[in-house]
Amino acid sequence: MSGLSRRDFFRTGGRLAAGLGASTGALTIIAPPTSAKERGTADSEALEQLAEKAAGQAALLYDATLCIGCRACELACNEKNQLGRTDDEIFAGRPAEDARALAPDVWTYVTFHQIEGDPSTASWGKVQCMHCIEPACVSSCPVVALEKTEEGPVIYNQYKCLGCRYCELACPFLVPRFEWETWNPYIRKCDMCYDRQQEGKPPACVEACPTGALLWGTREELLADAKARIEASPRTYVHHVYGEHEAGGTAFLHLAGRPFDELGYRRNLPLESYREYTKQSMLSVPYVLSTLALALGSVAWMVNRTKIGSEHGKSAEAGPAEGEKGGAA
Amino acid sequence: MTDSERLPLRWTLGLKILVALSVIGAVTIVYRFIVGLGPVTNLTDGYTWGFLTAVNKLTQIALAAGGFVMAGVIHIFGGHRLHGVARSAILAAFLGYLLFISALIVDLGRPWNLYWAIVSWNHYSPMFEVAWCVMMYSVVLLLEFTPVILERYRMTRTLKAFHDYVPYLIIAMLTFFTFVMTGSLLWTGAVFALTLLWEVLMRRGIMPRDHQMPLLLIMAGIMFSTLHQSTLGSLFLISDKLSPIWYSPLLPFIFFTSAVMVGPSMVVLERLLTTGIRRREPEIDVISSIARAMPYVIGFYLLVRVADLVFRGVVFEIVGITGQSAWFWLEMHLLVISLALYANLDSLPRKITLLLASLASVLAVVVHRVGVTMIGMSVPEYPRYVPHWLEYVMGIGLLAMGLLAYRLIVHFFPVYPESWSSHSSDQGASPTAALEPAASAVTSAPEV
After folding, report:
1. Contact criterion met (CB < 8 Å) for A178 and B443
2. Does B237 touch chain A (CB under 8 A)?
3. A24, A143, A189: best mutation site toward chain B, by most B Cβ within 10 Å?
4. Strands A252-255 vs A154-156: parallel, antiparallel or unpaired
5. Which residues contact A317 (CB under 8 A, 6 or more apart)?
6. Strand ranges in A99-180 using DSSP code E only, listed in sequence order
7. Roughly how many angstroms between the first and final C-alpha of chain A, as a whole number?
8. Distance CA B331, CA B329 (A)
9. For chain B, which terminal residue's Cβ has fewer other Cβ atoms within 10 angstroms, N or C?
10. Which is nearest to B168 in space by CA: B110, B209, B214, B100?
C-alpha cells in the first residue's frame, strides 16, 4: 500500500514539476528588462521619443535663482483652488525645509534651504506636481482617475477615485496627498490649473509670480530657455535642468544655483518612464493566459486519458459510483 | 438528513473568542468609516499601505492559493487520491477571497467607487488587473463550490445543468477578461478559440472529461490565480521605495512561486486543525503524500530567492546588521525549518512535525509579504511606519470573521462529508452516500 502510494506520489510530483516548468516559462516574461537599481542606464532613444511627445505640451519652468520666496504663488493657488487656508497660515508655513510640505490643502510650496552656518548657500526651492510626460501615478491608477491630458497637465477625475493610494506608492516625487481625516477622502494635487489653461490663461501661480521665477509655455520652449540661461551664466546655475530626463522627463522644469539634492529634490531618479517598470508585466498577460490555456488542457488530456477512460469503461458495467470509489480508496 | 442527526455546533471557547474578536473588529470598522483612515491607522502619504495590505490582502491571497493548487493537482495533474481535500481547500480559498475583498473595502478610501474598475480601463495598471482577477476568480471559486451546495439540497438536475452550461460561462469570462486586459481582438480570439477547442473536444468524446468538475472551470481558476498572484508582486515594481533585498524584477514570479509553495501547506494545516470539527483522526497518509512534495517545492522557491539575490548582486545588503536584513533572515530560517521538517517526516513524530512544518512555511510567506509592504519600504522623508493598534484590531477581527464563516459553512454544508455521514451510515440511500465520491451524483445522471 505504502509502496503504491509512494509511486503515485512521484508520478503526481513529476507532473506537478512539469506543469510548474511550463508556467515558469510563461512567467519569466513577466520580469521587466531592467531592475530599479540599474538606474541611469537610460535608453536615449526612448528619452528622445518622450521629449518629442511632450514638446508642444504645456510646461512650467521654475528658476530658483530668481525666486524671492514671497509665497505669492501659494496665495494664488490657495485662492484659485479654494483650498481654504488663511493668508496667515500660508505665511506662517511649515518648517520651510520640510520636504513633506505638500498637503491636501497645499498644492504648491516654496522651500528654503541653506547649509548650516553658511548663508551664501541659501536658496529657495519649489515642491509641486511635476506633471511627468509618462506619470507613474497615471500608469498605476486602476480607474484612470489620474489622467495625463493631451495638453500636458496631469489632472484628477475625482468621481472615479477608489482611494487605493497606489499613486502615492508609485510617484517618485512624493506628490499626491490623501485626505486621511475624513470618511469621504480624495487624492489632492496640483492640476496645473487645467481649467484656466483651457481658457488660454496661465496657471494661477505663474500669473502671481512677481519676479518671473515661474514661467508657463510649451515644454520645448521652456527647455530651450532653461538651457540658454545655463549657457549665458554658467557660474550662476547648476548645469542641470531638473525634470529634463528625471523619471522619463517632466513638464515642470527646475533651474537652481545650488545642487538639487541640497534643495530637497529627490536625486538619482531613474532616467526612464516609471511606466516601463510594470509595462512588461502587463504586456505578458495574454501570453500567460494563452500558454496556460494550451498547457493545462494538454496536460489534463494526457494525464487523465487512461484514468478517466478506464473509469468510464468500468462505470458502464459496474455502475457509476464504483469506479470512482475504487480510484479514491 | 435532519439537523438533529448532524454533529451539533458546540458553543466552545474557541468559538466565543472568534465571535468576540469579530464584534470588536466590526465596531472598529464602523468607527473607521465615520472618522476616516487617519485616526485608526498610522499610515501617511509616504507609507501609504500598511498592516491591512500586508496581512489581510497580500498574505490572505497567498494563503488562498491552496484552492487553485489543489484543484490543479487533483483535476489536471492526476492526483485523484487527494480528492478528499478538494472541497475544504476550495472553501478556504473562497473565504480567503471574500476576506480579501472585505479588507479591501476597509482599506480603500472610497470603496463605493469600486464599480469604476469595471467601467474605466487602464491597461497599464497592475492594480486594474488585480481588480479584475479578484472579481473573476471569486466567481470561479463560487462556481467550484456550487456542487457542494447543490448536493446539500439534492438538486441533481441543477447539478447536471451546472456541468452543461458552466464551461460556456467560463469561456465567455476568459474571453472577455482577455479583451479587457489587452484590448486586442487577436488575443481575445486566440483565448476564445483555445478554450472553445477543449470544450468541443470533450463534448465530442475525443478528450476525456472530468465528471467531478468541468475542466475549464479548473483551468480558469489556475489562469486567474496565476495572474492574480503574480500581479500582486508586479504592483511593487513601479515603486522606488522598496529595499533591494525585496525589490526584484522577479517579484511577480516570486509572489506566484511562494503562493504555490504555501498553498499545500495551508491544506495540511487545515486538515490537522479541523480534526476536532470533523471528529476524526487526521488522514496522515493523504496529508503525507502532499507533504512529500513539499521539500521540492520549498527547495525550488528557496533556490529562486537565493539566485535572485546573487544575480542582482545584493548579497551584501543581507549580511549587514539592519532590521531589514534580520527580517529577511527570519523568512529564510522559517523556510529552511519548514523544508527540513517536511523532508524528515519519516524519522520524526508525524503529527507535530506536519503541524510545525506547515506553520513555518505559512509564517515564511507572512514574513515575506510584510517585508515587501512594510519592512522593506523606506521613505526617508517620513517617520517610519508602525501599525496603529486599531489596525491590528481590524485585521484580526476580519480574520476572525472569516474563520467564523468557515466554521458555520462546514456545519451547514457537506464540506467534510465524513462528519456528515457518521450518524447516518446505516441509511444506505441517504444523500451522504452520494457525497463520498463527489462524482456519483453527476455520473449517475445519463451521459450526454
Report:
1. no
2. yes
3. A143
4. unpaired
5. none
6. 108-113, 123-128, 146-148, 154-156, 177-178
7. 11
8. 5
9. C
10. B214
Write the DSSP symbol of residue B447: P
Does residue B287 belong to the interface with chain A, where contact is any CB pair within 8 Å?
A: no
| CA distances from residue B362 to A37, A160, A295, B338, B365 in whole angstroms, order as listed | 30, 36, 29, 9, 5
Three-class DSSP category at B75:
helix
Query: Higher confidence at residue A313 or residue A197?
Result: A197
Q: What is the distance between the alpha carbons of residues A40 and B191, in angstroms, rounded to a whole number?
A: 39
Largest CA distance in chain B: 71
CA distance B255 to B414: 32
Closest CA to B263 of B140, B96, B415, B396: B96
Give ∠ CA A275-A277-A278 in degrees, rounded to 5.
Answer: 75
Alpha helices (H) in B108-243, listed in sequence order: 116-119, 126-152, 156-182, 185-203, 215-234
**CB A182: neighbour CB atoms within 10 A?**
14
| 8 Å CB contact between A81 and A205 | no
Instruction: Output the average pLDDT for chain A.
Output: 82
Grid cell, residue A34, equals 531592467
CA of residue B170 relative to chain centroid, distance: 20
Contact A211, A66 (CB under 8 A): yes
Residue type, B279: R
Please tell me the distance from the alpha carbon of residue B7 to that of residue B18, in angstroms, as a whole number.
Answer: 20
Chain B residues close to A282, C-beta within 8 Å: 123-126, 129, 181, 234
Q: How many interchain CB pairs under 8 A, A with B?
A: 312
Task: Give the pLDDT confidence of A243-301 residue by residue, as tens digits.
Answer: 999 999 999 999 999 999 888 888 888 888 999 899 888 889 999 999 999 999 999 98
Q: Are B60 and B67 in contact (CB under 8 A)?
A: no
Q: B439 is written with which cell numbers?
A: 462524482
* pTM attached to this predicted model: 0.86
Alpha carbon A157 to chain centroid, angstroms: 17
The architecture that CATH gives domain A44-279 is 2-Layer Sandwich (3.30)
**Residue showing cell 493548487:** B69
- Tell me the sheet residues that pair with A242: A254
Strand ranges inside chain A, DSSP E: 58-63, 108-113, 123-128, 146-148, 154-156, 177-178, 187-188, 214-218, 252-255
Is B237 in contact with A277 (Cβ distance < 8 A)?
yes
- Identity of residue B41: T
Please give the ipTM for the structure prediction.
Answer: 0.86
For the beta carbon of residue A143, count every other beta carbon within 10 angstroms. Answer: 25
> B11 by DSSP, 3-state: which?
coil
What is the spatial distance between Cα A318 and Cα A311, in angstroms, rounded to a whole number? 10
